[in-house]
């Protein structure tokens, strides 16, 4: 087993294009990233990662779905909500997004059911906790090990509690993602959210009885005050569970990724 130190992922620029602004040094052991199955198949592949990086013990598992062809392909990190996991939420979203030409990767978070998240680390509180932000950022870093990924065109997408994780991730690691989106979320730490520089599209139902619309409205105000490109799509008569897999929502997410250069099209 060998250990690779990834320093400013721009060293891979000759293979993947220019590195995104704000990428910091991170320790990563690609030999510890074990993929089981065919990531190009309809069901994709599963993966595990067991390593101690920068003094943090990681024991992660997830799904990986990739499009056909050598790439380099853009990618997306998908984050599930409370009670969800990579099997019943992330893999389904991944199957849609791989059809757009994205490499889709996801891991389980602390708010997955205990039977699913048993033994995964780092451990901590549910939702937008440091442990879950670490899991999400490590998942993004693992795209380096996948190969054929354009690391300058990586998006982030989350739902519900995973939407809050996505917001926290973008504020903790500003400039790393090219574009972001979420459904039925909001802001946990306004000061951290003010550091977000990633163009961010959010979707919320006006009949959401679990996460009030005011949560995402607060996030949009923070983004607007910071000068970060943003869009709030309010869906009339829709509740909390209605947006996660909605085809219209996902088509608008796809348009957002095109507009901001993750996908080919009108992007910069």
Structure report:
The chain is of the alpha/beta class. It has a single domain (4-259), classed as 3-Layer(aba) Sandwich (Rossmann fold). Helix content is 30%, strand content 26%. It has 9 helices and 11 strands. Strands 3-4-5-7-6-8-9-10-11 form a 9-stranded mixed β-sheet, sandwiched between helices. A two-stranded antiparallel sheet has the order 1-2. Helix 6 (161-172) links the parallel strand 8 and strand 9 (179-183). Helix 4 crosses helix 6 (161-172).
Tertiary shape:
globular
Mean pLDDT: 90
Q: Tally the helices: what do you get? A: 9
CATH homologous superfamily annotation: Alpha/Beta hydrolase fold, catalytic domain
Helix and strand composition category: alpha/beta
* Major sheet summary line: 9 strands, mixed
Rg computed from alpha carbons, rounded to a whole number of angstroms: 17 Å
CATH class: Alpha Beta
- Quote the CATH topology: Rossmann fold
The share of residues in helices is 25-40%
Report low-confidence residues grouped into runs of 5 or more: 1-24
Give the CA-CA distance, first to last residue. Answer: 40 Å
SS strand fraction: 25-35%
In CATH, the architecture is: 3-Layer(aba) Sandwich
Looking at the chains present, what oligomeric state does this protein adopt? Answer: single chain
Our count of domains comes out at: 1
Which series of helices and strands comes N to C?
A: EHEEEEEHEHHHEHEHEHEH
The count of strands amounts to 11
């Amino acid at each position: 087993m060998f250990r690779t130190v990834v320093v400013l992922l721009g060293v891979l620029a000759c293979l993947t294009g220019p590195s995104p602004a704000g990428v910091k040094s991170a320790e990563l052991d690609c030999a510890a990233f074990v993929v089981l199955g065919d990531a190009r198949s309809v069901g994709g592949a599963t993966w595990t990662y067991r390593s101690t990086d920068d003094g943090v013990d990681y024991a992660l598992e997830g799904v990986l779905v990739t499009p056909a062809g050598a790439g380099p392909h853009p990618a997306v990190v998908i984050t599930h909500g409370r009670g969800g996991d990579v099997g019943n939420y992330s893999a389904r979203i991944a199957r849609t997004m791989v059809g757009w030409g994205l490499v889709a990767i996801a891991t389980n978070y602390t708010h997955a059911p205990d039977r699913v998240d048993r033994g995964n680390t780092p451990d901590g509180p549910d939702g937008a906790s440091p442990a879950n932000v670490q899991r999400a950022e490590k998942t993004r870093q693992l795209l380096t090990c996948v190969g054929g990924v354009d690391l300058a065109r990586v998006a982030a997408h989350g739902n519900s509690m995973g939407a809050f994780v996505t917001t926290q991730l973008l504020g903790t690691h500003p400039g790393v993602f090219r574009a972001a989106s979420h459904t039925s979320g909001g802001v946990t730490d306004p000061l951290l959210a003010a550091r977000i520089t990633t163009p961010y599209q959010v979707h919320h139902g006006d009949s959401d009885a679990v996460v009030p619309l005011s949560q995402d409205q607060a996030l949009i105000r923070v983004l607007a005050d910071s000068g970060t490109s943003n869009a709030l799509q309010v869906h009339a008569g829709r509740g909390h569970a209605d947006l996660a897999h909605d085809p219209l929502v996902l088509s608008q997410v796809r348009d957002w990724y095109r507009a901001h250069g993750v996908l080919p099209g009108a992007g910069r």
